Task: inverse folding
């Protein structure tokens, strides 16, 4: 997607607006859900795009793809090599989640 590769803020704003319109008035194909969520995870870190990105994500999770969207977010967090995870943790300078140690 253009949102993932462009450095121009106008292109990114146009992409988020387009995603918002698609979520509101049409249907996102399930095959593109991972790319859409990765895009939203990347753009939410931009101060000027944070609010519109959260709005799109809330609306997306309220559609028929809501459960699949949550599952995709969880998979991003669990997968070390996920582009959404790398971008989110790098830009926010958050520590990696600790490993879960089970009791024996």
Result:
């Amino acid at each position: 997607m253009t949102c993932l590769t462009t450095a121009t803020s106008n292109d990114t704003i146009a992409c988020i607006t387009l995603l918002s319109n698609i979520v509101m008035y049409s249907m996102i194909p399930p095959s593109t859900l991972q790319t859409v969520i990765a895009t939203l995870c990347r753009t939410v870190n931009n101060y000027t795009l944070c609010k519109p990105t959260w709005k799109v994500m809330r609306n997306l999770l309220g559609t028929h793809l809501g459960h699949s969207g949550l599952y995709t977010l969880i998979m991003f967090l669990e997968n070390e090599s996920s582009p959404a995870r790398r971008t989110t943790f790098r830009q926010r300078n958050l520590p990696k989640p600790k490993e879960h140690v089970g009791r024996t």
Observations:
- Residues 24 and 59 are 7 Å apart (CA to CA).
